[in-house]
Amino acid sequence: MFNKHIWLKEFRSVRWVLLVLMAMFLYAQTGGLYSDTRIWEEQYNYFQSDSFSKDQEQSADDVKLKPEDVKQSLTLNYFTTGFPGEHYQTQYTMSQSYFALSVLVALLGLAVVAWERYTRKDHFTLVTPFKRVHIIGTKILLGALGIIVSYGISLWLGLRHMFSVIPSEYIDLDTKKVYLGLIGNLGTFLLIFLFAVFLGTVMGELLSTVVAIGVIAIMPSYVYTTWMVFMQTVNPNIDISKLANWTSYMNVFIIFGNSDFEYGPFVVQMILIGLLIVGAIFFYHRYSVESNGKIFVFPYMRIPSALLISFGGAILLINFWVNGRYDSTNALTLTELSIFSVIAFLGCLAVCYAVLYRNAWMRK
Questions:
Q1: What is the radius of gyration, based on Cα positions, of the chain?
Q2: Which one-letter DSSP state was computed for residue 29?
Q3: What's the pLDDT tens digit per position in 258-316?
Q4: Strand partners of residue 296
Q5: Residue 110, φ and ψ in degrees, nearest 5
Q6: Which tens digit of pLDDT belongs to each residue from 209-248?
């Protein structure tokens, strides 16, 4: 696995994706943190300016900012995304850059296995004098190292600049939130990459692999919303704030998805990463070029995969349908929601069946 020839071969096949990924990390993360630092400086300069003093003099006593309020609003506590709270919050993840990075990481995962299968370069790879475990291990290590190095360098450059500009008196980091947030983001990128690699080992058709990545990666973040909709239709008077909030467990594919900064979702993320590595190695060891072009390489995966993708498709359709009813004057009933859910699931299942068994269906 540490033979230089196999590393050179794998690097040449994905070098352009790695270079673009590095450039995108520098733009999104380093550039984003530079932008946040500039915003902090603008806020700081405003609080030190005469215009702020005049605004304070003209404001009522109950709305005037106290010195401790000013300091709190300038204090960096942790890294997250969203609307500013009591403390200064970084906003760089509000841009579309992280979505583009997630797509690039998925493309890297597709390039190491699925694209090689699509272009038939796997014919050459499998006849090289290397064990399959070493081949897939090199692919995973190369991609993971590319992500870790790009993420680490871009983050270090951005934080170095930020901490050199913001005085230490305005830095009061919550260690738990910082580590769970930043390391959790790295885990998210690795999870997306490994998920794409895993699907490349069990699916033999590139387009179907891309669709499966999109549906399965997006679907978890909508499960909690759908569950809340069902709970509200069952009991319209229910207090949503009292419902168990497990969105952080569902948002494993989303940057800063662990919004509550809990250890549980982080552990689940690490377990999924481990399972995907083991699964990719296991199925690549049973890799066969004769299965190229088939949607699922292993026939016994068709039914469970069709059920999972149909469930994901139904979740997305339910959310789109519910959002489209916001302007409706009629309240959503449990009967309507149940009927639509069943129809959506069966419809997605029918599409999956037609695609999976299209050759037999077309012959008929």
A1: 25
A2: I
A3: 777 888 888 989 999 999 999 999 988 887 766 666 777 787 888 888 888 888 888 88
A4: 203
A5: -70, -35
A6: 888 888 777 777 777 778 777 877 877 776 666 666 677 7
Which residues partner with 203 through β-bridges?
296
One-letter amino acid for residue 106 of the chain: A
**Per the domain annotation, does 273 fall within a domain?**
yes
Q: What mean pLDDT is predicted for residues 149-168?
A: 90
Which residue from 184, 221, 198, 156 is spatially nearest to 301, judged by alpha carbons?
A: 198
pLDDT digits (tens, 9 = 90+) for 110-154: 888 887 777 777 666 666 777 878 888 888 999 999 999 999 999
Alpha helices in the chain (DSSP H): 4-25, 31-48, 50-58, 67-74, 97-112, 114-118, 122-125, 132-165, 175-202, 206-218, 220-234, 247-250, 263-284, 302-324, 334-356, 358-363
- Domain contains 342: no
Q: Is residue 303 part of a domain?
A: no
Cα–Cα distance measured from residue 197 to residue 138, given in angstroms and rounded to the nearest whole number? 12
Least confident segment among 75-89, 109-123, 165-179: 75-89
Within a domain: residue 300? no
For residue 208, which of 100, 112, 17, 352 has the smallest C-alpha distance?
352
Residue 243 is predicted with a pLDDT of 62
Alpha-carbon distance of 307 to 303, in angstroms, equals 6
Query: What is the C-alpha to C-alpha distance for residues 73 and 56, in angstroms, rounded to an integer?
Result: 16
Tell me the C-alpha distance between 339 and 33, whole Å: 48
Which 3 state secondary structure label does DSSP give 137? helix
**One-letter amino acid for residue 83 of the chain:** F
Residue 12 reports pLDDT greater than 60? yes
Cα 128 to Cα 222: distance, rounded to the nearest angstrom: 44
What 3-state DSSP class applies to 171?
A: strand
Tokens of 269: 């993320």
Mapping DSSP to helix (H, G, I), strand (E, B) and coil, where does residue 238 land?
A: coil
Taking alpha carbons only, the member of 218, 210, 97 closest to residue 158 is 97
Question: Which structural domain, as residue segments, surrounds residue 173?
Answer: 4-204+250-256+266-287
Tell me how far apart the alpha carbons of residues 223 and 246 are, in angstroms, rounded to a whole number. 10
The domain tally of the chain equals: 1
pLDDT band of residue 362 (cuts 50, 70, 90) is very low
